[in-house]
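STRUCTURE:
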């Protein structure tokens, strides 16, 4: 594998499959099998998971909820996903720990940076839940933050599309996929990769981002192996 330690960002929507809502156990187990193969090859894996399959803070806020309250509900949704992912990973034979930014010691460890790093060194997957513990920050920003904190070599953003496009490929048949971009190009072009705070964090800490299609068979392992897959975002091309 090309990387020793990676941070994998999974959207909550990825866990619901075709259901439209909630958690699809078959999809979660399929993701776990892919991650297990990466761990077996010797790469340390940390995961940040979103909660959009259950509740999205911005949507709740738009419906009239207090924004901070809505974001806290969204954080709880990410913990549900994290625990589900932990179960699937351990059934795949991968020792896993869930750490949350909001204390809930009966079901998960509190987030402690040095403890998370020690788990990774021992070959355990660490799943970070509850975002960064603060409202108004996305799980994309959490992924960039945790990657910097644990000294990850790269952030992998696994999505439903096979990279970054100049326009929405679902709406425009002439959309063009980028093979590589710089952080500055993403920021200045306002490309929908991750929010600007996440991009700036990765830029400041020289952490490359790879955006790829989660649902291609073996794509997680291919990305970690350094294959030319998806779109790679770096300080310079």
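SEQUENCE:
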């Amino acid at each position: 594998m090309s990387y020793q330690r990676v941070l994998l960002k999974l959207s909550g929507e990825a866990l619901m499959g075709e259901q439209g809502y909630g958690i699809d156990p078959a999809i979660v187990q399929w993701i776990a099998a892919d991650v297990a193969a990466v761990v077996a090859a010797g790469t340390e894996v940390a995961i940040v998971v979103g909660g959009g399959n259950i509740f999205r803070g911005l949507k709740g806020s738009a419906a009239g909820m207090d924004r901070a309250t809505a974001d806290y509900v969204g954080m709880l949704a990410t913990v549900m996903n994290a625990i589900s992912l932990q179960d699937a990973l351990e059934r795949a034979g991968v020792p896993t720990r869930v750490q949350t930014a909001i204390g809930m010691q009966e079901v998960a460890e509190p987030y402690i940076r040095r403890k998370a790093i020690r788990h990774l060194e021992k070959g355990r997957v660490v799943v970070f839940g509850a975002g960064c513990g603060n409202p108004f920050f996305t799980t994309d920003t959490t992924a960039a933050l945790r990657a910097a904190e644990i000294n990850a070599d790269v952030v992998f953003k696994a999505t439903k599309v096979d990279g970054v496009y100049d326009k929405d490929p679902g709406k425009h048949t002439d959309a063009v996929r980028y093979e590589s971009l710089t952080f500055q190009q993403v920021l200045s072009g306002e490309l929908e990769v991750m929010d600007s705070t996440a991009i700036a964090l990765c830029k400041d800490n020289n952490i490359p981002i790879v955006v790829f299609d989660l649902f291609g068979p073996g794509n997680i392992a291919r990305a970690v192996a350094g294959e030319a897959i998806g779109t790679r975002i770096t300080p310079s091309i």
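REMARK: DSSP finds eight helices and eleven strands in the chain.
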